[in-house]
Amino acid sequence: MIQTELPQIPIADGLSEGSKAFNEFKGLSFDDAIEKVANGLVSFGFKLLIAILVFYIGRFIIRKLYKMTLNVMTKRRMDASLTTFVLSLIKMVLYFILIITIIGILGIETSSFLAIFASAGVAIGMALSGTLQNFAGGVLILLLKPYKVGDYIEAQGYAGTVKSIQLFHTVINTVDNKAIIIPNGGLSTGTINNFSLENYRRVDWTICLSYDTDLEAAKRTLLEMVDADERIVKKYIEDDMKFREEQALEKERELHPEILEHQEEVKPQHWWKHLFPRLKKRKKVIHQSLTEDVEMNAAIPVKVERKPFVGLNEMADSSINLVVRAWTHSSNYWGVYFDMNERFFTELPKKGFSFPFPQLDVHFDGNVIRPQ
What we know:
Oligomer: single chain
Number of helices: 12
Mean pLDDT: 77
CATH architecture of the domain at 198-263 and 303-359: 2-Layer Sandwich
Shape: elongated
Order of helices and strands: HHHHHEEEEHEEHHHHHEEH
Distance between the termini: 105 Å
CATH topology of the domain at 198-263 and 303-359: Alpha-Beta Plaits
Helix content: 40-55%
Radius of gyration: 39 Å
Structural class: alpha+beta
Low-confidence stretches: 1-15, 293-300
């Protein structure tokens, strides 16, 4: 025979406290009881007044902090989804702290509330550990910005253009227009190859020529072919940037000739420039001193040469492999790569160079005795 015991329902603590408060009035006269109630109401009224005052002051401070945070995130051009979440989180946390403070001012015990919220937070965190990891990764990505929408990245075994960055995942489009959804947890802790982060990239080609090729002539021809393309950096990236800016301005002037006429207008000389010649000289002296300080530090290179390079990379079984390296703007990478491949294929044979096929030379020894 199985015996079961019914659980006992515990008496609420509030009932016991109420009975204690009722017992305090036992043995008191009517006037003493009225005086005690009046003192309690006056004390509670003061606490209520202080609580109301704290509530309005706290709400004013919360609104000010909310506006300050909104202005900072707007000026830094933070992501809209991250801005909304951060502002909601700040508002919720600050109001929670304000409510707990007001409850404590009113004389209500707050330890039980804190214990309930803490246990609920632990339970929710354990249940949503993976989701919270992706969420934290999304916040880090939106804050640190290792990539942005429109960048071409390679991560987690996938490569494509970033279409959108959400709080829990990132969507990329592959070159064949497949949408890949990658959780942000792995992206925030893994390796990301961002091809769009730098404005200039190096293009590499491997040209295979026969062994009877004149090496110096081949190197000279390849350099001439690469230098002939205007999209290739001739020596310095900074000079190429200026050249691209001048080209853009020239096209803009051709489309809008009124801009050139406006720039050629002689600007009137301001009267205050004649009154402060010493200030102009002082600025010139400061500029010269700063320039001399920069030139004295010769250990730090100001510019790095990025001119095209051709070299013998490998002597393979059937060919000599020449490597061609050139720098170009990232937007021209694939155009330069495919265009130069076609030029190498069509122009090198016309210049007397040949592309070898895999071949094997077999030599027979005439002294070998053949079997009868």
